[in-house]
Amino acid sequence: MIRQSILIIFIIGITAYAFRDWFISLAALIIFTVMSQNDDMPRTMMGIQGLNPWNMTIAVITICWAFDRLRNPRPIGIPAGAAIVALLYILVVFVNYIRVAVDTGSLPPGYPIRSFLDVTTELWINPMKYMWAALMLADGCTTRERVKIALATTILLGLGYGALVVKNISLSYLISADGYMSARQRIDKLIGLHANDMGKVLVMTFWSIFAAHRLWPQARYKIMAIGAGLICLLGTGLCFSRAGYVTFVGVGFVFACLRFRKLLLIGPVALVIMIIAMPNIADRMLMDVQENEGTGEMDLNAVTAGRTGNLWPPTIEEIRKSPLIGHGGWALLRTDAYEAIKDTEGAVPTNPHNGFLDVMVNSGAIGMIIVLGVFLGSGVASLLLLLSRTDPIAIAAGGVGMAHVSGCLINALSGGVLMPCQSMLGTYAAMGIAVHMWAGRHTKLRPASPRRRVWIRVPVVHQPIPGRQA
């Protein structure tokens, strides 16, 4: 009761503060998202479905943001092309939702979500509220100080998840002889994110801290950054997500190739030390990697937890049936793939545990082009910022954006998603900040060295970051 009262008081406080400064209230609400699935947090208010403290607060902040926009008109802050791609991405989400909403009878008998209102909540309101919060945060980055606050917000969001994992999951799972797989179930039950999603979030947060720590050069902040990175590292280990581990190495390799060359030397040594200190990580990576006694060959389906043999073939077959536009949201539940997967897996997930196949079966090649346009476009903007030689804020914004873009694309190969959900909140915020800051840069640096000409737009110090000039 006491914890619930504290949570409600906090929500009331940031809601009231939104009338003074909606940007700070929004940053606080985004960080507070880590508690949105807590048992002490009310799921509904006044018996109205979808009305809960988080949704109510974002609605109030949106009103305050709109009034601020009316009082202080300013450009949208991103190029027209980027805005069009973002709108097309939202259109893909809407089309996926509407194709299910008008055909709820195609869902399996007994499926808990069957009404129009339930589908609207699950496939439109819940996904879009996280994306909208991230877009408002990026839109509010009108000064360099606000960019720093927004970057800190994305990092603190992931750090909050990491702290909950370390708090609720015993560190003994990293070295105990067995039973570590039960930690994955506890993460989903106690925190509200699947272990694979949690692993991805913590990996991207770890590399975001690595990229942004130069923004706070004081010694006490360096110590805090080391502690925060350690929490994310331990939390990643406790997720026992092979996709998360691969993403960790993949993002580190991307950073090493793009800017931080020392990682090529330090990385392998650090990996060996982590494997020795946390042996269950190696056990998890090698789980089911053994030869079949009958054939003498490795069972790839077992290694991939049923993906290559049970999930992906029926999904690919459905993609062939509608390669351009897909089948709409939750395609695995609404097509012939349902029975094929149920016969082998026993239960049918809402996605095929591959972000690219998920987009293709739901939205087809057209949707895939739009989705990749969003991520690759954000990745280019992040790269241009990351290559800055003189501006620590640009390097931080680009590094955080690159950590999230590369992390999502790598993780999507096995288990990750590329569409809106709670675990994507920090990613959308990081991508939006990078694109918004890149678009507002209006001067050029001199060449960084005689060997390499780097032309990157930078903002004027202590001035608002303007929109792209005509």
Key structural traits:
470 residues, mainly alpha, two-stranded antiparallel ribbon, 19 helices, 65% helix, globular
Describe this structure in words.
- By secondary structure, the chain is mostly helical.
- The protein has one domain (74-290, 346-458).
- It is built from 19 helices and two strands.
- Strands 1-2 form a two-stranded antiparallel ribbon.
- The N and C termini lie far apart (56 Å).
- The relative contact order is 0.12.
- Mean pLDDT is 87; it is low at 442-464 and 466-470.
In short:
The protein has one domain. 65% of the residues lie in helices and 1% in strands.
Write the layout of secondary structure elements.
Elements: H1 2-17, H2 22-32, H3 53-71, H4 80-101, H5 116-139, H6 144-168, H7 182-191, H8 195-212, H9 219-239, H10 242-258, H11 263-277, H12 279-285, H13 300-303, H14 307-321, H15 331-334, H16 337-345, H17 355-386, H18 392-411, H19 425-439, E1 443-444, E2 457-458
Antiparallel strand pairs: 1-2
Helix pairs in contact: 1-2, 1-3, 2-3, 2-5, 2-6, 4-5, 4-17, 5-19, 6-7, 6-8, 6-9, 6-18, 6-19, 8-9, 8-10, 8-18, 10-18, 11-12, 14-16, 14-17, 17-18, 17-19, 18-19
